[in-house]
Design brief:
Layout lengths: L6 E10 L2 E11 L4 E5 L6 H8 L7 E6 L2 E2 L7 E4 L11 H11 L4 H9 L20 H13 L5 E5 L7 H18 L2 E5 L3 H7 L2 E5 L6 E6 L14 H15 L3
Parallel strand pairs: 3-8, 3-9, 6-7, 7-8
Antiparallel strand pairs: 1-2, 1-4, 4-5, 9-10
Helix pairs in contact: 2-3, 2-4, 6-7
This protein binds adenosine-5'-triphosphate (ATP) and magnesium ion (MG).
Amino acid sequence: MPSTPRLSLDAVSRTFGTLEVLDRVSFDVAPGEFVSLVGPSGAGKSTLFNIIAGLDSPSSGRVLFDGSDARGRRDQTAYMPQKDLLFPWRTIEENAALGLEVQGMRRADARARVREWFPRFGLEGFEKALPFELSGGMRQRAALLRTVVQERSTLLLDEPFGALDSLTRQEMQQWLQEMWAGNEWTALLITHDVREAVMLSDRVVVLGPRPASVREIVEVDLPRPRGVDQLASPAFGELERRILELLHVQG
Ligand SMILES: Nc1ncnc2c1ncn2[C@@H]1O[C@H](COP(=O)(O)OP(=O)(O)OP(=O)(O)O)[C@@H](O)[C@H]1O
Ligand SMILES: [Mg+2]
């Protein structure tokens, strides 16, 4: 890779007591790249995101951002955890401003900042709505807005569309693809949906069962922008099959 990677994982391991969760996980992510992580449930994917986000530390190994050790730094990424729920009693605007307020921004400034983002997230006019008044896809976009508005160049998205029906999910994938392309983000996505991983990613990191290690990294060399018409292409199907095979290999 010619440029310094945005993110480098160098033999990251994590144990909780006697439970080994991550086993020397190593891979790089280039600036502006979209990388997905797939692997069995309980493999250690969310644990890896917690470490990258600086909320947890590796038992051994290193995390580098732009070539520098980032141990314990929480300001390198915007993180949407696996269960990123909106507070039901706060308006969408108040929910979206939460991340900025936690960072120490004044409440009025935080709300003014998030309002600028509403049109791009298809949420214009819903600033004062409560979460129950929104559809599932809109709520998910609001949770993403809360993450993205922190204006960090690197996003960590842990199964952001896991709870959505397949049609809404496809719409959200298209939308995320456009947002990613338009904002020069570096993105890491955890998903159980292999089709989603192929649709969105430049590369897919396939992890084995716990303790998770990198089984293989699959390049997705399909032209962009990608649409649902591509789902039926032989190249797309071949990549899906390859990743599914890797996931199902024993041992
Ligand atoms: N703080 C912790 N203390 C002890 N064990 C933990 C802790 N965090 C995670 N684990 C354990 O680490 C293992 C991996 O959990 P993790 O949440 O990373 O899996 P995952 O790959 O994200 O799974 P899923 O796909 O179901 O979300 C699990 O066995 C879990 O119980
Ligand atoms: Mg998880």
